[in-house]
Amino acid sequence: MCAPGMESFWLDDVACTGSENKLFNCNHTPLGVHNCDVNTECVELFCAAGGPQPKAHLEQNDNGILSIVYAGQSKAVCSHSFDDNSARVAC
Question: Where are the domains of the chain?
Answer without folding.
Answer: 1-91
